[in-house]
Amino acid sequence: MVYCDTNENILEWGSEELVIPYKSPLDNKWHRYFPDFFIKYRDSKGNIRRSIIEIKPKRFCEAPKVQSRRTKKYLYEVTEYAKNQAKWEAAKEFCEDRRYEFKVLTEDDLKV
């Protein structure tokens, strides 16, 4: 957040301010998704761009490996993955309609 406040190319930003409706594959009902960040910025060519950014551990972005034992941990991972995929699909459609970018960043993308 300090980065967003101090970078002169970031014109506007917010955390968990947008609401994107999505239909959950778990209960087939509509829910609300609050992406981590909205950023409006000037790119290196001077163009104004808008991005919605979600930050997740890499393990939540990959489908869990199929296991023969249905442990609580495995079931949790499967349901979270399905829910995240539904959220991110809704976010992609939301962004396409508005000419925004949607990005999911992991620890591989973030510099500490």
Structure report:
This protein is of the alpha+beta class. The chain has one domain (2-105). Helix content is 29%, strand content 29%. The chain has two helices and six strands, in the order αβββββαβ. The strands form two sheets. A four-stranded mixed beta sheet has the order 1-4-5-6. A two-stranded antiparallel ribbon has the order 2-3. Strand 5 (48-55), helix 2 and strand 6 form a beta-alpha-beta unit. The radius of gyration is 16 Å and the shape is elongated.
Runs in which pLDDT lies below 50 for 5 or more consecutive residues are none
Q: Alpha-carbon distance between the termini?
A: 13 Å
| Main pleated-sheet profile | 4 strands, mixed
Beta-strand segment tally:
6
Strand content: 25-35%
How many separate domains? Answer: 1
Which descriptor suits the 3D outline?
elongated
Based on helices, strands and strand pairing, what is the structural class? alpha+beta
**What is the number of helices?**
2
Kindly report the spatial arrangement of strands forming the biggest sheet.
1-4-5-6
* Range of helix content: 25-40%
Taking all Cα atoms into account, the compactness measure Rg is 16 Å
The overall pLDDT average reads 94
Q: What is the chain-wise order of helices and strands?
A: HEEEEEHE
Short description:
This protein has helices at residues 2-6, 72-98; strands at 10-15, 20-23, 30-33, 37-42, 48-55, 101-105.
Chain-wise SSE layout:
Elements: H1 2-6, E1 10-15, E2 20-23, E3 30-33, E4 37-42, E5 48-55, H2 72-98, E6 101-105
Parallel strand pairs: 5-6
Antiparallel strand pairs: 1-4, 2-3, 4-5
